[in-house]
Amino acid sequence: MPKFDDRGLLSAVVVDAHSKDVLMVAFMDREALDLTLETREAHFHSRSRGRLWKKGESSGNVLKVQEILVDCDQDAVVLECIPAGPTCHTGATSCFYRVVDGRTLQPVKT
Amino acid sequence: MPKFDDRGLLSAVVVDAHSKDVLMVAFMDREALDLTLETREAHFHSRSRGRLWKKGESSGNVLKVQEILVDCDQDAVVLECIPAGPTCHTGATSCFYRVVDGRTLQPVKT
Questions:
Q1: Chain A to chain B Cβ contacts (< 8 Å)
Q2: Do the beta carbons of residue A36 and residue A23 sit within 8 Å?
Q3: Strands (E), B5-103
């Protein structure tokens, strides 16, 4: 089963189950993973706030989890999700809306 | 520009530029990011070995970087890559070759 690092965390990558776009990257502790498995809605651990958070708890933009993949050494998971709305707090569909172009950032070409 | 956490790291997600499958998840420090930007081949920081590593340095299965996306708070990147071979050390195309099914792991259905 998943292995947590010395901080009790593993990496969690959220991808859109249909488009396969990466929507966000966050961390999970055991509590967040257990709640995600139980409720099939994505929960994470906020390092900055030092607490559990359910994605969409304030915005309503929850992530319905269709499938959870785990990597070879079991310290990272991919959550294939159906998002209820924009995933990014900026209103963007994905948090990854910019590309690194040399030393500057540019919007993703769509 | 990208922000590194209190350990000097950011999360890096490798996706296949064609299939969009998530191939692996790792960490980068500034040195790894700079070398990736310079060489357009993926470099990471190994937490377990405490050193820089170039993906494929021993296997030859390097990752050619086509595009680098950065997230809203700039502490995670997505590398869109063309892999020279299987990404996983097990020989699997992706490190994410199993799904969490309740409390057990099952192979991904293809």
A1: 92
A2: no
A3: 10-16, 22-28, 43-46, 51-54, 63-70, 76-83, 98-101
